[in-house]
From TrEMBL:
Family from the record: Belongs to the short-chain fatty acyl-CoA assimilation regulator (ScfR) family.
Positions of the HTH cro/C1-type domain: 28-82
PROSITE patterns registered for this protein in UniProt: HTH_CROC1
InterPro entries attached to this UniProt entry: Cro/C1-type_HTH (IPR001387), IrrE_HExxH (IPR010359), Lambda_DNA-bd_dom_sf (IPR010982), Rad_response_metalloprotease (IPR052345)
Transmembrane segments: none
GO molecular function: DNA binding
Classification lineage: Bacteria, Bacillati, Actinomycetota, Actinomycetes, Pseudonocardiales
Protein name: XRE family transcriptional regulator
SUPFAM superfamilies, per database record: lambda repressor-like DNA-binding domains
Length: 380
């Protein structure tokens, strides 16, 4: 009798533990991408092959209980996470407006998309308990390549739809949340090359901002930029320079309509006046210099000289505006639920998500508070 090889014995032992009939391959893919693991890397942490993991994720094969235990250990989730629960919406790269697809490694992009999927699942279960703001109809798709004036008109129309009064937008992130758009900061362990992005694949729009941009002006512009995508770029293939330029134009006009901003811009490079405009409008000096040049107030020479000055100053710019704008909606919603006796444990049980996953999303959608350090001087 020929003795069986090690792999054959291991496979026989796995089969003896029984197959998980309600295994959800989408959840395996989700947990793997959140950990930034390739299938081959995950396979090396278990006793199955990368091909088997592909089959599990696609639903063409089911793992045994023993294999599920290995996968759970390797991915840091409980085994119950892989069992079918509330559906989790997939967010493909083709439905997410990343600032630059070419500059974003695929594995980092997949991690960010996985976080967006978890976020939509958390929002979905939250809405079983609490009414979030209704989504305002803001869609105004562009036709072909609109002119700068047409984009400015769309931005003005959007301001009206969102009830923005003339003048600066007080808080861009809170404005989006008030109109049903979920805004989150990306996880701190997401590759910093993943910039802000947005998607409308779920039942409500989702905007994710980079935690690496510790600047109020930049956070406001990023939020307005992603709003531009949600307004103009329905069913448009993301990633092209053309639509990114359109979103930039939209953000500029949405934050500061040219007719209102122009009186606050100096006719020559004057940093005191520019700092005053920065404080009023919540726009960076670099953006103000660009606007002064684009609307014809500054010559090419003046604009180039201003950029050289800013390059010498370095980052952060002079005239800080304070910390980035922070989301509020999900933190407020879970606080209401907690007051009513519904905890994150209840949400985890209802969604089959982990406490860590839910807490990560809620934290990403909550107001950040300044961290104060208390020091104690020992008595002599």
């Amino acid at each position: 009798m020929t003795p069986e090889s090690g792999p054959v014995l291991r496979a026989r032992r796995r089969r003896a533990t029984g197959t998980v009939v309600d295994f959800d391959g989408r959840r395996l893919s989700l947990a793997r991408r959140l950990r930034r693991l390739q299938r081959t890397t995950l396979a090396a942490k278990t006793t199955v092959t990368a091909a088997a993991i592909t089959q599990f994720e696609r639903g063409t094969a089911r793992p045994t209980n023993a294999v599920v235990a290995e996968l759970a250990l390797a991915l840091g989730v409980p085994t119950d996470f892989f069992r079918q629960g509330r559906p989790i919406e997939q967010v493909p790269a083709s439905a997410a407006h990343f600032r630059s697809l070419r500059a974003t490694p695929a594995i980092a992009r997949d991690q960010a998309l996985a976080f967006a999927e978890i976020a939509l699942a958390v929002v979905d279960v939250l809405e079983q308990y609490v009414d979030l703001p209704t989504v305002t109809d803001i869609v105004e798709p562009v036709d072909g390549e609109p002119t700068s004036d047409q984009v400015a008109t769309i931005a003005a129309n959007t301001r009206k739809r969102l009830g923005v009064e003339p003048g600066p937008v007080p808080h861009v992130v809170r404005l989006l949340e008030a109109h049903g758009i979920v805004v989150l900061r990306l996880l701190s362990d997401v590759d910093p090359r993943v910039d802000a992005f947005s998607t409308e694949i779920g039942h409500r729009p989702l905007v994710l901002l980079s935690p690496a941009k510790d600047d109020r002006a930049r956070s406001r512009f990023d939020a307005a930029h992603e709003l531009g995508h949600l307004v103009m770029h329905q069913d448009v293939e993301p990633g092209s320079k053309i639509i990114e330029s359109q979103a930039h134009q939209f953000a500029s006009e949405f934050l500061a309509p040219t007719a209102e901003l122009e009186p606050d811009l100096p006719r020559k490079v004057d940093w005191d006046l520019l700092l005053q405009a920065k404080t009023k409008w919540g726009i960076s000096l670099a953006a103000l210099a660009y606007r002064a040049h684009s609307i014809g107030l500054w010559s090419e020479h003046s604009y180039r000289r201003a950029n050289q000055h800013l390059a010498v100053q370095g980052y952060p710019e002079p005239g800080p505006l304070g910390p980035p704008e922070s989301p509020y909606l999900l933190g407020a919603a879970t606080a209401l639920l907690s007051d009513a006796g519904t905890t994150l444990d209840h949400l985890a049980a209802a969604s089959r998500l982990t406490i860590d996953q839910i807490n990560g999303v809620v934290t990403a959608g909550s107001e950040t508070k300044p961290r104060l350090r208390v020091t104690v001087t020992p008595q002599p």
